[in-house]
Amino acid sequence: MNDIAHKYSDKQRRFNEEMNPHLDALYNFALQLTSDPNDAKDLVQDTIVKAYRFFDSYEMGTNAKSWLFRILNNSYINDYRRKSNLPGFVDYDEVSSFFEIIRDQRTDTTDLEDMIYRDLLNDDISYALANLKEKYRSVVVLCDIEDFTYEEISNMLDLPIGTVRSRLHRGRLLLKEQLLDYARKKGYELIA
Length: 192
Prior knowledge:
Structural class: mainly alpha
Largest sheet: none
Shape: elongated
Pfam families: Sigma70_r2, Sigma70_r4_2
Strand content: under 5%
Protein name: Sigma-70 family RNA polymerase sigma factor
Family: Belongs to the sigma-70 factor family. ECF subfamily.
Number of domains: 2
Helix content: over 70%
InterPro entries: RNA_pol_sigma-70-like (IPR039425), RNA_pol_sigma-70_dom (IPR014284), RNA_pol_sigma70_r2 (IPR007627), RNA_pol_sigma70_r4_t2 (IPR013249), RNA_pol_sigma_r2 (IPR013325), RNA_pol_sigma_r3/r4-like (IPR013324), WH-like_DNA-bd_sf (IPR036388)
CATH superfamily of the largest domain: RNA polymerase sigma factor, region 2, helix turn helix motif
Mean pLDDT: 78
Domain RNA polymerase sigma factor 70 region 4 type: 125-174
CATH class of the largest domain: Mainly Alpha
CATH architecture of the largest domain: Orthogonal Bundle
Radius of gyration: 19 Å
Order of helices and strands: HHHHHHHHHHH
């Protein structure tokens, strides 16, 4: 094997070892951002291509998951900005309740996100999480589901830690408000 081929096969091996363990979590986060399995797959694919292209700048042994999530989030934001400048698009917030109704009918996935949100969590909880504004939902998902630290979320989303904390606090409060009736129906005592 010549030196060039060996160099590329070594890079591919190192990339796979560092990045592949995080693909499911990456897809789940992309699905939370996009609410569409096909868009989530495209976003993950775009993230992997960018990560591979810039893998030489990645420091081996550091937090690969955080690095990938930051690339994914930046790609999502850039794509959102690009699409928002195009004419003829409908604001998602205007049609979100309708979309949530038809989304449940058209998605039939077997991924980890599906297991978490359909088997382990009640539809009321999934719906409440999906109805959070994206800036709150991202922080709640990254912290409470993906178990990232405030510092990691701050780096991924390029936000000050104080903003991460306040968005997490606000997101949790919004979830609590949405889920009060659900908690009562399930017999939970509400503490003032």
